[in-house]
Amino acid sequence: MIGGGPAGAVAARVAARTLAAMAGDGWRQRFAVHIFDSAPCSSERIGVSVRIGESIPPAATPLLRRLGLHREVEDGGTHLVCPGSISLWNGDRPGHNDFMLDVIGRGYHLDRAAFDRQLLTASERSGAVVHHAARLTRVRPRIGMAIADRGAVTPGRADGPPENSPENQPENQPENPSGNRRDGCGYLLDLSLSGRGRADSVFAADFVIDATGGPAAFARRIGVARNILDDVVFHCAFFDLPSGCDLVSHTLVEAVADGWWYAARLPGHRLIVTFCTDMETTRHLACAEADIWHGLLRRTRWLKTVLPDSVTGAGTLPARIVTRAAPSALLSAVCGDDWLAVGDAASQYDPITSAGITKALMHGEVAGQAAARRLAGGDREGLRAYQRRVFDDFLNFTRVRRHLYGSETRFPDAPFWRRRLGRA
């Protein structure tokens, strides 16, 4: 497992539990599940990469319960209950979407660092081994070995052919543009493990799950193409809320001519405020600059009236604007005989759908099952079913995305909105 975010952690937990169910109590003598996380430690994940999109809707509740993860979210007061959303979208008055009437569960604004820690800890309880400060630097196929002929992954060494073996030389390796042309041979992974004081270590893996997010670091290295439908950009800032602040806990959204704004309370008396636009508008407005970003926020019609003065008042510039690309993208293939991609590594959704984390959990569950069944029983149908699921879900996402952007009709000539619907 390369990547320790929600998709990778859930896939690892489910893979370990599925292997235990299939192979019995002695499954650890035959198999091992390893997570290589890029953060120095799970408590520092946010310091390494600011996460944009910090909420889960009630639809995630049944999934969390099925995965045995609901108590991590519901208990302890770590996460903040989200009662729903209020949005100024295609109208003069804000509309409400009330989660409190949803019978399947609650929505939450997440403490994302804590959430990631909770998922990784749950995967460890299921038998996965987590390695921190790991970065993938090279991928090589293992040639000519069937899964049944090899042992489990051995950290820190390659139990396959040595690097200078003839079968591991590039001229003796078959072309592999899609990752699907070899018959389950596994891979040798070069990883930098700075947390252990080692520049590089080589790991042998019978099956690799790419959970590296948008870069899809493994899949792209084996030649899998990435298809981009659209590419919006987020410029976000974090604020500390003053003591006694009565800001509602709803997600707050407002559409404007140049994009749309998102704001939400976070645990720990914090607030995230995000402006979604695209690169063309970013260059035109220079909205990645704190003073310009803040000026645009102060020109919103409704959002500026509900946020505290400590955020919208004159002279209250954010300390930092964090800019992140948020493409709508899909790999041309999300699995092969001995690998799969999951989460944003496989498919990325425009955050307008608020589905990113839920999608990571759902696909992580299916991915973990498919990988375990391939390892333990040689089953390929689970992988094929997983790819169909990812592709079908992406197609459904494109329909939802187009409906949401198309439902805002107040700015028919604005370049941002025309580009979202392919009318530029």
UniProtKB/TrEMBL annotation:
It comes from the Bacteria. Transmembrane segments: none annotated. InterPro entries: FAD/NAD-bd_sf, Flavin-dep_Halogenase_NPB. Residues 151-182 are annotated as: Disordered. Residues 161-179 have a biased composition (Low complexity). Coiled coil: none annotated. Gene3D superfamilies: FAD/NAD(P)-binding domain (3.50.50.60). PANTHER family: FAD-BINDING PROTEIN, SLR1998 PROTEIN. This is Flavin-dependent dehydrogenase. It comes from Eilatimonas milleporae. The lineage of its organism: Bacteria, Pseudomonadati, Pseudomonadota, Alphaproteobacteria, Kordiimonadales.
